[in-house]
Structure formats: C-alpha cells, structure tokens
Design goal:
Length: about 270
Amino acid sequence: MLITAAAGFYLGSSGGVDVRLLAYTLIGVALVAAGTNAFNQVRERDVDARMRRTERRPLPSGRLSLRAAALFAASISIGGVAYLALAVNLLTAGLAALTLASYVLLYTPLKRRTTLNTLIGAVPGALPIVGGWTAAGGALGPAVAALFWILFLWQLPHFLALAWIYREDYARGGLAMLSVNDPDGERTGRMVMLYAAALLPVSLLPTVLGVTGPVYFFGALALGLAYAAVSATMTRAATTARAWRVFLVSIVYLPALLTLMVVDKVVA
C-alpha cells in the first residue's frame, strides 16, 4: 500500500515532488493500512484459529486480548484518517476511510459467504494509488482511474493463485473461495487467465492518456505478456507449482510496472 501510494503521489505531482507532503501521506496511509489489518484480525480471529497459516497470529494464539486488539485497531485507524485530513487533504482522508470501510465492513464478512469476495477485496487494495495521486493535488479523472484498474486487475490472478495453493486451509477456515469448491482447478485457472489478459490492455492506458511515455508502454507490454503467459499455464492444469509461479511473477510484475511509471513519467 505504501509503495503504490508513493507511486501515485509521484505520478499525480504536476511539478516537483513535495517530499514533506509525501512523508505526511505515507504516515497516514501506513496508520490506516495497519488499522485495517488489525480490524481484519479482530473480526476473523475464529477463522484464523482454524487455519494453519494464521493460527499463530496474536489473537488466536492468545498472546493478545480482544479488547487490546480492538482498541489498537480503532485508535490507529481513526488517527490515520484524521491525520490525513489535517496534514494532507480531505479527499485523501475520505479515500483512506473508504479503503478501511470497504475492507472491514464488506470484504471481511463476504469472505464467509461468496466467492465474489475477491472482487470486493480488490477495491480497497487498489485505492491507495488513488489516495497518493490526490494527496499530491492530482484531480480525479481518466488517468487515475486507469491506475486504479491496473491495481484492481493485478490483484486477482495474484490472490486466486494464493487461494489455490492454500485451498485446504481456506476450507478449514470456512471461507468461500473459488478454489475451495474447484477440485480440478479448471475454474480457478480460467479466471486467473481472464484477469491477466484483461490487465494487459488496461496497463497500457497511462501512455495512451499521456501520463507516461513509450518506455513505459513497451515495458508494460512485455510485463503483461509475461504475466498472461504464466497465467495461461494454469488453464492447462492447475497445479501448486504453477500457482506458485503465477504468484511469484505477480510479485515481480507490480514493482517493475510502478518503477517504469516513475521512470517514464511525462512531465507536464
């Protein structure tokens, strides 16, 4: 979240980067992001206790009381939103509050009810780059919408691959993930490929909209083709090894893409 917010700030800066304002933005985003994470662990403490990969977290392991965790989550969340409102601007604070609310009040409970939770969860995951953009004074419009959709689509193959790897754990936790009721992985592989393919043209929009130059365009094209190619392997057979490759490529893809944006930003 901090990396994407910082990239959004740089891309949204019309002149030079205001380093102090960037620091204020990242402090506020960090507080809200941490608060969101803490609230999620408060609400999912029973799920975490049933899953091997999360059973040693502070609440299910008994290292932290529910009251202390809830107080911590509320304090830093409210503090982060208030800090952004005072030190940055109200629009960025509002986006941070929307990130928190959509994650904790929508995504977290929907994980128990519907496989569509992944789409809902991608919204708060994509909002920090918008918050960084507005913190720098960038106006809401097509350019920042393109950044939002890049982050939104990137997350879906990334998380679907992770959910396939840990499908047995998610089943133990009682979470409604696509991979839990997809024994051969056919649907999971198809959706991974679909979202990776959709990301490719969307990732080229920053150059089309005049935010970045040709270096970014061709770099994004190469990265998108690589992401789509590795995702396509899951449509032939959804194995754990192939899911790990998709996951690892996704981790490389995002910072590489953001770096290209920063390096090849078109200066107005």
